[in-house]
């Protein structure tokens, strides 16, 4: 009988015995006399009472007391036997379960304290299955028990004999190898008579052993396994295995030898990995991050509890917060979710009031929850003592001593805790009551990155010339006040560029009607909100349930109403998804809440003091500093340490809370906002109709909730063409230099919360990874450098664009036309019998296409309106774009609408605020830049492009002087608006007295030549690939796109000669443009399917190409493009395949792919299997598909397909960051659009030199080898101790793959420094 069955039987018998004991009302004293284990029963009894079952009437089956006692005695004997059998089996399988904390059930349970923590109260059906007493034969139990005892005694004797026999065998064969007994995997040898069944137990925590102790044991175990496994056949072992192994077929020798070599290689890799891990763990490297765990599983619930308590406290509802915490604490299942920081929230509240006894009670709650007080707990206790003038110094001393016993230092209080208001001063006051001379010591601050790539940047500063801004200290301080005012308001109202048009009578009428309606809507919403809050506040819900009420008390009621009215004004005519609308509303509430938190915590005053001192570093009228902005800010914070902490004050809300709050507000709007049906056309049957409708539509195959405005409201808004637009403050560029990033949670805006890393809504793994990382200085400093670039508006160009925008637009120039140009939606009665089925279907398609076109036109028009209105609003300002990044490290400006990453129109309106003289070569660079913007002369040398620009100088000047009425040469350029701006700059320069002294604000671009392939070619040292993408110096630029097009054309011509029809059809249509997008994106992981769609789109743009051949042609061409690239970039394909297969095996093993960039930025791919989560609201149930939940298994397909492009993106972002840092140290103005670098015409040559040097420095690092080492460390340690199952085979395959770094070619990387067209 196996151990598991014995345990199960013991449990069943104990329950049965308990039932009968209850039925006959046997006292606990009798129980204890009959069975020594009766006090450890599964049910709890009330003192002075006997256990009974009140629900079921069992009087009909109550036996006599003597029979009951006899039966209990028999069963206790049986349980003694079973317990002995369990102990026997425990000794048999001790080798299998010695590392597993398996608790075996002891003999029957009769009293209190169930081992499982629950009372085994089964349903009535279980009770019905218990046999009646009459079914047990008298006297049978005695003989049965005797047989069991005899059997147990006999088994013990047999076991003793076998153990003695086994010991003799081991002594005889001590010098011989011991063959494995079970599948070549068991290290232990078990007696033949004992069971071979293994109990699978949960894996023990890695925290139990140090990695350095765990790995050697695992390696030795794996080595023994490998030795034992060499003779093992791949199929299941049989009894004949020993004899068969002697007579092996000679043909199997090669296979066995190959397997032996592979196993030897695995052993060698494991030993090497063991040495690396030992060195790694003994060094000062940070702890290897662990995946999963309780924190991840309960993270969303914990965040919900945390944000709920913070909201209660902020709104002043202390009683609700206290009740909620106690309700969570009382229930064990909910208590397990809590951590110490949750309890600290209430401690802070009582600390403000100086009530130390309440804090003491929460310390007791912490102890009950099995949690230890942390720095925040002791900080609250000390703050309370500091506020209480009657607090004894002895109490403070005891608190400090307890801190020391818990391993916490007083200095860490001031370096790690986040203080609000005067908390820091109160804590310091309490400490000085005991230690009068105490002064907090600042925490050691690592001032620079440990990456060798930036070692010189941080250590050799004697020749650095950090740029200053063209502003005085007073001007910057004044700009700070203006920006602070904007962010405090949270919204900006500005003039629409459409408002420049003359106001017609109808426009004035519609504007008046809308203003009147909005005033009414505000009153209605205000009343509805207050009534709904009263209902929520008085709802008799249980304390432990999360309620929206605290989130509706964070702001003034009127502020919620303003947010709702703003969302109505911004709603598109086609409507908006309920999920998106709710998210935006919730985020607006959260932003206002964060701003008000900073006011309540008194951080605004301190921020102003530090920023005013920080302006010394940037202003032109102060001394030159030899420190970076982030270093200066940290120094100023340490100098002005009193008062609140600036960093990390706010708690982020879970996505579900944001969505639920937004849905609640949308529901209020839909139910309460109404308008008269005859407001536009008077009618006798006037009635109030809703202005918003909740409806459903289909997106692909999914049904989606939609909020759509009534056509009357849409018509009023379109005809009004309102003169004002309202935006959230964070969408506007900043009016002062951004706050430098100094930590993961602090930087960019003054008050508005900003994320360092852009992530999918609800994903937290990136933030957790960043907070563990202590080496992000280079990343911070790069983002700060990009954000410190000051900008201005190119006003002459902006005026031309606005004039075209207000005059019906221009599709050729990418300026969308007004909605008056939209196609009219045909109206027809689909039930009209005059239409045939074909005509009806045709009319339906026309209606759908017209609606789609109209919706697209509205989206494009509003996007252009927003961008141009923002640009017009700041036309006379100098402004800045704060930056953050995505999870791969690619940088982006925070303002979403208007920035230099935008379209041709947006980029053309932006110039540097700081001007620099052109110098001797600046005018030439402007001319070359203009030719680059036209898209012409891509295969020409720089000198050839310069000569071409001189030949078209007349067209350039004409374009500058008469852009709309002249020859309009600029309109045919690839980037027409940037080309026009460049024409104007060249005209101004050549007409100046001395072009070399002309002050130019114009940014000149240097673009990478298929940058993704450049990184692949450098990684693989691929000579052919490097030449194709201009890593190798050449007289003229090599165009990889033209090269692929030429190769495809040769293959097509050959197929056409052989009579292939589609190849003949394609004659004359294969061009660089057709293949460019596919070639560019192959390196970023585009599939053949995606490539076919790209080529199909290009072919559709060719008017002469026969449309009925597009499908076949795109299939044919994508195959040729992929084949051509495979031949041209063999090294690239090998690396790409290695990355893809590595990601596949890693994700199959249950892990997400993670790596670290050469600058130390940790990257993790957030692709997991999707799970559905339903948000229930009164409007509808919103079904959310969450594919970033770290508790779900990784999505293998997404992980493997995304790893190569994401890894290359992380490299190109590293190259950009390195270039930005070294350009900053050289005093250059530098910004980037990913792999396109911008600077002044004067400094293009310097930027080019830095760009090439940093590319060589980056790829001189053993990037692939370091990636291999990191992945081995992350996913192949600790080494598995068992080699029997599938997991070890997967581990071995992964180990061999990750250690086999792709071979590199012979390309000399230093040649990149001489390559003119690397970036050009």
TrEMBL record:
PPR repeat segments run 339-373
Q: Which residues form the DNA-directed RNA polymerase N-terminal domain?
A: 481-788
Q: Which InterPro entries match?
A: DNA-dir_Rpol_C_phage-type, DNA-dir_Rpol_phage-type, DNA/RNA_pol_sf, PPR_rpt, RNA_POL_N_sf, RPOL_N, TPR-like_helical_dom_sf
> Where is it predominantly found?
mitochondrion
Give the family this protein belongs to, as stated in its UniProt record. Belongs to the phage and mitochondrial RNA polymerase family.
**Complexes and interactors:** Homodimer. Component of the mitochondrial transcription initiation complex, composed at least of TFB2M, TFAM and POLRMT. In this complex TFAM recruits POLRMT to the promoter whereas TFB2M induces structural changes in POLRMT to enable promoter opening and trapping of the DNA non-template strand. Upon metabolic stress, forms a complex composed of FOXO3, SIRT3 and mitochondrial RNA polymerase POLRMT; the complex is recruited to mtDNA in a SIRT3-dependent manner. Also forms a complex composed of FOXO3, SIRT3, TFAM and POLRMT.
Task: Output this protein's name.
Answer: DNA-directed RNA polymerase
